[in-house]
Amino acid sequence: MYTVKKLPAGDVLLTEGTIQPNIFILKSGKLVAMKSDGRDVKTMGEISPGAFIGEMAYLGRHKVHQATVIAVDDSELIEIHGDSFLQTLAENPIWLKALLRTLVNRLEESNEKKLQ
After folding, report:
1. Rg, Å, the chain Cα set
2. Residue from 53, 31, 45, 68 nearest 102 by CA
3. Spatial CA neighbour of 69 closest among 106, 39, 17, 33
4. Local structure of 79: helix, strand or coil
5. What is the pLDDT of residues 10-27, one digit of tens each?
6. CATH class of 2-115
7. Do 54 and 106 contact (CB within 8 A), yes or no?
8. In the chain, how long is the greatest CA-to-CA distance?
9. What is the pLDDT of residues 54-65, one digit of tens each?
10. Where are the domains of the chain?
């Protein structure tokens, strides 16, 4: 099951270190992911339409969000309820492809940062 969520500019979608069981797809607008190292807050990157948000916490071993995600612009998201995530992906194969694209992009970005 999924719903459409509106997020005004400046509002927080996810907070680093918290557990939130739902996964999001950015439909329109722009978000930014930020992470604290204990002293400073660093921008991890911008999130563009079509990207998934929260999938790492859902699929990963830590289950907590690794970054805070904030709306840069007024945004619209598809909110997929965690308890029906796999079923929703099976019913919407285009979203599965978008999830894979998001994961591959994040892996490529991580690899590039390691080389710098």
Report:
1. 14
2. 53
3. 33
4. strand
5. 999 999 999 988 999 999
6. mainly beta
7. no
8. 43
9. 998 888 877 899
10. 2-115
The whole-angstrom separation of Cα 112 and Cα 103 is 14
The residue ranges of DSSP E strands in the chain, in sequence order, are 2-7, 12-14, 23-28, 31-36, 41-47, 52-53, 68-71, 75-80
CA–CA separation, 92 vs 52, rounded Å?
14
The model's pTM: 0.84
Vertex 85 angle, CA 79 and 88, to 5°: 85
What tokens appear for 73 in the block?
A: 């612009």
* Residue for token pair 């604290």: 36
Nearest to 22 by CA among 114, 71, 85: 85
22 backbone φψ class: left, alpha, beta (φ>0; ψ -120 to 50) = beta
